[in-house]
Design goal:
This protein has eleven helices and 25 strands. The strands form five sheets. The chain has an eight-stranded mixed sheet. Strands 1, 2, 8, 9, 10, 16 and 17 form a seven-stranded mixed sheet that branches. A five-stranded mixed sheet has the order 19-24-23-22-25, with no helix packed on it. Helix 1 packs parallel to helix 4, helix 1 packs parallel to helix 7 and helix 2 crosses helix 3. The radius of gyration is 23 Å and the shape is globular. Bound molecules: flavin-adenine dinucleotide (FAD). Flavin-adenine dinucleotide binds next to helix 1, strand 8, strand 15 and helix 7.
């Protein structure tokens, strides 16, 4: 993005959802950014499909929540088929008691729409702050080497003309996915566990009469099947556990598979994007080496069960950017600065480990790798899913609202019609929030930190947020 000068504060490697979210966040702080992306253009296949409440709250901060919302559709209900072809339980997902959030739902939205919304927001912010900025993303441009110095990093970047040029950046963010070059260049490894499960996926166009905003989870003996509505008429994402040596699935084979496992006549007419992959999961051994950080899939890869991948990457970025901005503000001593930057690695490593373990466990159960747990879940689910409290907690849990990272999320109750507590906490740096007779130390990522845990408390401001 900065082309005239050969130097930026931040070099972001990879223009997936993590890299784009990091760039938007950086611009909020006035940090200069360059994003390089190996691909020639945006991939128009859906990949991740669910955006969760906590991520919507981050998008609200970044100024693109409305764009993401309008490109998506809320899941109205989930049908859990526990005795396939015979017994299914319908669970309403809307109007649940999730409590303190503006986004009490799971949003179905293809990954490329999220990327488009973030890129649109970036273009808007750049146009406002720089009159002659370059392209938002430098496509066909890849990182090939890194050299870390005392006060900056020299990155070697190969452009569309094939020429490798050196670029100087204060910080480098490796947002370059599961096979991260950045990770390799800084000598960090990621051990991946093979979960022994193969999934086939496809986005299909159907003549089905299924309700277009209700999903299906089919726990069949033959294997797990997910039928997920996409925000377009008659379009569905199918995800099926398959035999790794089995045949490729075309439209008619998908029809047979869906009917055999669920009894549903989906009437697949044609197929869009399809893919097949062996499930692996793992966390990078480290998320920081001096001036280089790893975020998103570069830091953690895991099973898509629960749809946490994209969400976690965006939240990694939101955890890090304010820390870099504060570290660069020269308000901290060198020791405080290092501790703050290291806290990104320790906080997000813990989140990634927990998420990888949780999704591995859930995948083993749902795919029948743990036979006993699979049988028990099939018996218990029809009753448990009817208990409101269970569903409310499950909804919040999957929505990542109760996830702890460096502290707990600041609650977001409604203070007045249309006004919530988060609307009042807009500072870009940690804030001492006096609210309802309490004093809370709130980080810019809306995490309530332990008093004394942040090194720069002389910098806090006081916000009178009213009372509920
Ligand atoms: C087939 C498939 C299906 C998926 N389905 C789901 C799902 O249903 N639900 C879910 O939650 N998640 C799903 N995921 C995972 C989800 O897509 C990822 O978690 C998400 O994309 C992570 O975003 P990211 O920005 O960290 O990485 P990515 O989206 O992988 O972006 C990384 C970018 O870096 C670029 N890059 C790589 N190396 C370089 C380099 N040297 N220089 C410059 N650029 C580079 C790549 O081209 C890529 O565009 C799926 C992933 C795949 C591949």
């Amino acid at each position: 993005m900065t082309h005239e000068s050969d130097e930026t504060d931040l070099l972001i490697v990879g223009a997936g959802p993590t890299g784009l979210a990091a760039a938007v966040d950086a611009l909020r702080y006035g940090t200069s950014v360059r994003i390089v992306e190996r691909r020639a253009e945006r991939a128009e296949y859906s990949k991740a499909l669910v955006v969760h409440a906590r991520t919507m709250e981050v998008f609200e901060r970044l100024g693109c929540a409305q764009a993401v919302l309008s490109a998506g559709a809320k899941f109205r209900a989930l049908h859990v088929h526990t005795i396939p072809r015979r017994k299914r339980t319908r669970v309403d997902l809307l109007d649940r008691r999730w409590g303190d959030t503006r986004y009490p739902f799971w949003l179905s939205v293809p990954q490329y729409e999220v990327e488009r919304a973030l890129e649109g927001r970036l273009a808007e912010m750049l146009a406002r702050t720089q009159s002659n900025h370059g392209p938002v993303v430098e496509w066909s441009t890849e990182l090939v080497a890194l050299d870390q110095r005392e006060s900056h990093v020299i990155a070697s970047v190969r452009g569309p003309d094939g020429v490798v040029r050196e670029h100087r950046a204060r910080w480098v963010l490796g947002c370059d996915g599961g096979r991260s070059t950045t990770r390799e260049l800084i000598g960090v490894s990621m051990k991946r566990a093979d979960l022994g499960v193969t999934f086939a996926l496809a986005d299909v166009h159907t003549d089905s009469e299924l309700a277009g905003d209700e999903g299906h989870v089919v726990m069949a003996d033959e294997g797990l099947l997910l039928i997920v509505p996409m925000p377009a008429e008659g379009v569905w994402r199918l995800i099926a556990q398959v035999d790794s040596a089995g045949p490729e699935l075309d439209a008619s084979r998908w029809n047979e598979l869906v009917t055999r496992r669920s009894g549903i006549d989906l009437r697949v007419r044609s197929m869009g994007w399809s893919s097949r992959f062996q499930l692996t999961s793992g966390v990078s051994d480290a998320l920081r080496r001096r001036r280089v950080f790893l975020l998103g899939d570069a830091a953690h890869v895991h099973s898509p069960v629960g749809g946490q991948g994209l969400n976690t990457g965006v939240q990694d970025a939101h955890n890090l950017l304010w820390k870099i901005a504060l570290a660069d503000s020269e308000k901290l001593s060198p020791t405080q600065r290092e501790a703050l930057l290291d806290s990104y690695a320790s906080e997000r490593h813990a989140v990634a480990e927990a998420m990888v373990r949780g999704t591995e466990r859930m995948t083993r159960v749902l795919t029948g790798r743990s036979r006993f747990a699979f049988g028990a879940l099939r018996r218990v689910a029809p009753f448990a899913l009817k208990i409101d409290r269970v569903m409310d907690q499950l909804g919040r849990g999957v929505g990542m609202l109760d996830l702890r990272t460096g502290g707990r999320r600041l609650a977001n109750p409604e203070l007045a019609p249309g006004v919530r507590l988060h609307d009042r906490v807009t500072a870009l740096f940690p804030t001492l929030l006096r609210w309802n007779g309490r004093s809370l130390l709130v980080r810019p990522d809306l995490v309530v930190a332990e008093p004394g845990s942040l090194p720069h408390q002389s910098e806090v401001t006081v916000t009178e947020a009213g009372s509920v």
